[in-house]
Amino acid sequence: MPNKRSGGGLSPTQQAAKFLGVSVLAGAVMAGIALPAVGALGLAAKGSVEGFDELPANLKQPPLSQRTTILDSQGDQIATVYSRDRTVVDLKEISPYMQQAIIAIEDARFYQHGAIDLKGVLRALNRNAQSGGVTQGASTLTQQLVKNVAVEEAGDDPTLVAQATQQTLGRKIQELRHAIQLEEELGKKKILENYLNITFFGQQSYGVEAASRRYFSKSAKDLKLGEAALLAGIVQSPSRYDPVNDPQEATKRRNVVLQRMADVGDISQAEADKTKKAPLGLDISKPKNGCITAVKNGGFFCAYVREVFLNDPVFGKTKEDRAKIWNQGGLTIQTTMDPKAQKSVQASIKDHVNQKDEVATAATIVEPGTGKILAMGQSRPYGMDVKQNETTINLSVDESMGGGAGYQPGSTFKPIVAAAALEGGMPATKSYSAPYEMEYPSPISVCGGKNWVNTDGTKLTNENESEVGPYSMKRATALSVNTYFVQMIADIGICPVTEMAGKMGVERADGDKIGQNPSIALGTQEMSPLTMANAYATFAARGMYCTPIAIESITQRVGEQSKSLEVPKSTCSRAMSENTADTINTLLSGVVEDGTGTQAGLQDGRDNAGKTGTTDFRYAAWFVGYTPNMAGAVWVGDPAHERRMVNVTIGGRTYPKVFGGEVPGPIWRDMMSGALEGEPAPDFNLVYIPEERPDRGRGDDNDNDNGRGNDNRNGDDEGGLIGGIDGGTFPTPEFTIPEGFIQGQGNGGNNGNGNGGFG
Predict the structure, then answer these.
(1) What is the model's pLDDT at position 692?
(2) What pLDDT, in 10s, does the model give residues 690-739?
(3) What is the pTM of this model?
(4) Nearest-CA neighbor of 143 among 292, 299, 32?
């Protein structure tokens, strides 16, 4: 076999092809297409060896696009995503039957010729001339590889794909030039390996490994004779010989391949005849592509990871650069998603909100001090079926990251106002008159040395008329008193609040700036659950804010090499002093102990804190809370901002009015309980905040100091506040105020539900 070669130098056949010039080249490249006689082609300018050598020889070989695998923090698969379902494998990982079958049917003289098979060309020309059309081609595997490389480079651009496959003499000559280059550089075995990895086998399968798993649910190294023959036969026409949609045609084609293998001596005729009688033996695996296939209800987490990749400059300077890497694939992405936390989030959601409810819920858990997003879930599943309430909108994140326009956080914004005030020197014992109703104070300073002015006498109220001050900061926080926090923001100005929000990563979900308006104290600026969870993680981390991250590491396989990619790192900065954070933690511990969030409080002895929130007209309700090692946010509402949560059924239960402590609170409690199971239970660094007795009581007032007597309220104060002070003592997180320090005994109670902050 004088023409057999292992790479390097031109074979005699190639030299002959070059020497023969236009006459042979034209026939060679046009063997598979119908064109006029060679004399009419006008190729004299390129009819010499020198002219042929002037053609560009550098074939641009893009890395083959492959599937990307997304893993949770424990290394278990969440989903696979790809633009083309392909897994590149070495030739030694491909069944010898498969190698023999593809060579037998596509290029039986593969190991005997160079880039062009002149015998095959002459045979094809003769057959085509006899038939008067194109009945046989003569492209070698090397030439087919060149064409497939061009198609791969074209990607999904139909214009570029058409150019890469157009049947013109110029492209075919260039294809031959590149084929000679590959023969010189790669050698036969590498060409065969590349061909089997790049070729399309139908049913979304690119490369023999993906095809083997698609049709037979096994690796390419395990393919048997009949299976290999079937796959080899598909290549010529993946749609015509599709065994899923047309098993009869596929069987005929498989048998052609088997006979060809017998004819060239790869198998015996007896083997061929026996295998021809066997069924196809398909074991179909459905394509598993995209976040819609994610397990562990990780579809939205998967989608968020994709958005991070496409938006973060660490992965490329431009969005086009990043998209190219993403589509190229071959990535193994280990995320921060904690499987235990994710399972707990979704279980809690399922227990409290139904998929087809008029309203939805979204929940996120973040790790304080690291920014790691541990879980992300919602009641409306990831999918396209609108009738089933499926959606691809991630209700937990900002609009730019695949989410919606956000939701007013209501009173969950109030601790940010308090943090700004404390950081500016306000004592934690500060009291305000906090009447039931008042006009917005005016003027109030804003950023830039200007003032906000209440030009039309706009008023605000507390949730119910029984909420009348004066109140201290601790009690106002527990009760979520609107007028208290508006008086506070009037004192300190709006700019310190927006600056504090910025330090805590709090921004509008639609990307706009937070408005310079005192109503921000009541949570009127639309935020996402991830934003609020991560902001509260700042309190849990004693004032350190860390940017949220979803990716731990990425490795990418390019060809036979694997490399690590740089990933976004969480950057941490001090948003407030430790003392300010500790004070907020103390205030918010009171919310879950005897304030509006008692239904959210954890029952296992863990330190926990949080804040309820209900917006004006009840379009949204929240609970955002945390322990020292996890922070979570739960939102409930209508994503379209149309359905008020009044007389609404959620999770099979009808609510006259929805408030943050009653619906989001229990969701938070259950999801956090499961996520924290078996985890350490560190303590907060709580501070002593004296409960300064205002000049009025809230129970039976024995001192006649303007008390309100038995306060059995029936308003909407978000969830079961104990209205009276019981026994003359005010419980604090770490201290009991000595007997006699405060006069008078309370004997009140309530079943009220006070607002956490009108929008």
Answers:
(1) 60
(2) 876 554 433 333 333 333 333 333 333 333 332 222 223 333 333 333 33
(3) 0.74
(4) 32
What are the distances in angstroms from CA 503 to CA 495, 507, 575, 634? 12, 10, 5, 22
pLDDT in tens, 438-466: 999 999 999 998 999 999 999 999 988 99
Q: CB atoms < 10 A from the CB of 126, how many?
A: 12
User: Cα–Cα distance between 628 and 606 in angstroms, integer?
Assistant: 9
- Cα angle, residue 429 at apex, residues 427 and 435 outer, rounded to 5°: 115
> In angstroms, rounded to a whole number, what is the distance separating the alpha carbons of residues 679 and 368?
14
DSSP 8-state assignment for residue 175: H
**Residues ≥6 apart with Cβ < 8 Å to 733:** 586, 589, 590, 593, 684, 686
**What's the per-residue H, E or C state across 234-267?**
HCCCCCCCCCCCCHHHHHHHHHHHHHHHHHCCCC
Strand ranges in 602-665 using DSSP code E only, listed in sequence order? 609-614, 620-626, 631-637, 646-650, 653-657
149-200 pLDDT, tens digit each:
887 777 666 776 676 666 666 667 777 778 888 888 888 999 999 999 999 9
- 104 burial via Cβ count (<10 Å: 0-12, 13-18, 19+): buried
Phi-psi region of 217 (alpha: psi -120 to 50; beta: other; left: phi over 0): left
Distance CA 604, CA 634 (A): 20
- Tell me the mean pLDDT in the region 525-544: 97
The CA distance from 208 to 214, in Å, is 10
The tokens describing 101, both together, are: 């079958």
Written in H, E and C, the secondary structure of 481-521 is: CHHHHHHHHHHHCHHHHHHHHHHCCCCCCCCCCCCCCHHHH
DSSP element (H, E) containing 189: helix 188-198
Query: Distance between CA 506 and CA 526 in Å, rounded?
Result: 10
Q: What does the alpha-carbon distance between residue 244 and residue 223 come to, in Å, rounded to a whole number?
A: 18
- Mean pLDDT, the chain, integer: 82
Planar angle of CA 180, 185, 187, nearest 5 degrees: 85
Which among 235, 223, 253 is positioned nearest to 199, based on CA atoms? 235
Token duo for residue 358: 């008029």
At 601 the pLDDT is: 85
Please determine, for residue 90, whether its predicted confidence score (pLDDT) is greater than 70: yes
| 81: amino acid identity, one letter | V
**Alpha-carbon radius of gyration of the chain:** 36
CA 412 to chain CA centroid, nearest Å: 26
Give SS3 for 6.
coil
Strands 561-565 and 444-446: unpaired
Report how far residue 291's alpha carbon sits from residue 183's, in angstroms, rounded to the nearest whole number: 40
Distance, CA of 696 to CA of 480 (rounded, Å): 18
User: What is each CA distance from 248 to 211, 242, 245, 251, 273, in whole angstroms?
Assistant: 19, 9, 9, 5, 17
Average pLDDT of the segment spanning 646-657: 95
